[in-house]
Predict the 3D structure of the following.
Amino acid sequence: MKKLVKELFIPGIIVVSMVAMTFMATFSDDIKTTVDVMAPAVYKSDVTLIIDPGHGGADGGAVSDSGAKESEINLAVALKIRDLAGFFGVDTIMTRQSEEIPYPESTGTIREKKVYDQNSRVDLVNSTENAILISVHQNNYPDASPSGGQIFYTENDCSIVLAGNIQEVFSSSISPDSTRAPSVIGDDIYLFQKIDCPAVLVECGFMSNPGDFALLSTDSYRSKLALAVVSGYLQSEDDINSYYGGTNESKDSILLY
Ligand SMILES: [Zn+2]
């Protein structure tokens, strides 16, 4: 516990980290101590954070040598992001909450199922007012050497700020040896082509890298990833609120006391 706190003890996320540690201590069986910190008042805005665990259902995404599916890791991390973000008063929606996706009977082939699923996610995002999308994925590469997390963004000022803040927390506490920088997302990802709101894609690490994969397989590391994403999100809330014409007058309520 002390080690985790120390690793995450950096300017800008101290409040988020310590309160989140209390949260994690409450829900984790293997953490016996708690951090004696009072929870802050929540910071409420009209923005809805849409959390998108990549793949799922008939689409497992990348598969490790041992047969682990990317979709399952994505979902586990995304559910933790949902819980932590909710703890801080952020309204959230998930694009899926299970590995099972209820496809209509009209979808026969895997391709048809994928198209149906992607269009459902597009519809959900585009029908949500004041939405921000964070999509969670795991990277994969033929060569086992690449490692570390990287954040991708759509070409939008708000997305760039959010990606930068999440990447900064990753650089501090997730992948300190990595020199990866945020990058604009490619035009080959259907969901990101079709949505209008600010959006980032978080590649948490490489399933093809043995070190990354060992970490990605643990519950504690998934919690740490979720904490990094939520920390970056909370640091971006001024910009996100401004993007949607909101004010930031309640910002001072996120203070440790
Ligand atoms: Zn993926």
User: Anything to note?
Assistant: The CA atoms of residues 3 and 57 lie 37 Å apart. The beta strands are 48-53, 91-94, 131-139, 150-153, 183-184, 199-206.
